[in-house]
Write a structure and sequence with these properties.
It is a single chain. With 115 residues, the protein is an all-beta fold. It contains no helices and eleven strands. The strands form three sheets. It has a four-stranded antiparallel sheet with strand order 1-2-3-4, with no helix packed on it. The chain has a four-stranded antiparallel sheet with strand order 5-6-7-8, with no helix packed on it. A three-stranded antiparallel sheet has the order 9-10-11, with no helix packed on it. Strand 5 and strand 6 form a beta hairpin. The chain is globular, with a radius of gyration of 13 Å.
């Protein structure tokens, strides 16, 4: 079993391109690999728990959504935000289509957006 250090409650988890991506209550995003290495990718969402994470199917980017009412797309290699979109309400889920061209967002209030 792997434990994030410092210990942080996990709010979202996704598997993509052989890595596990974890979002925490503190707004951080970690990447874990099968060897057990844990790496802090970004200290991400300023004021909210990271609930939804989605690795892109072919590119080295990750989409995240949070209680801070934002969608962020991160360049993993550069460790920087490449898209920061304000949302109307807190979001709970995000996912790329298999070809990576469409992004779906699921909101706390039950609505869904397709971008």
């Amino acid at each position: 079993m792997l434990v994030l250090r410092p210990v942080q409650p996990v709010r979202g988890i996704a598997l993509g391109q052989g890595k596990i991506v974890v979002g925490t209550r503190m707004g951080n995003i970690f990447q874990l690999d099968k060897a057990g290495d844990v790496e802090l990718l970004v200290g991400g969402h300023a004021e909210g728990e990271v609930w939804g994470l989605a690795p892109h199917p072919t590119e080295q980017v990750i989409a995240t959504v949070s209680d801070d009412k934002t969608l962020k797309v991160w360049d993993v290699a550069e460790r920087k935000i490449v898209l920061n979109k304000d949302l109307a309400t807190p979001a709970r889920a995000v996912g790329f289509s298999p070809d990576g061209k469409i992004l779906a967002i699921g909101y706390k209030d039950g609505k869904v957006d397709i971008l």
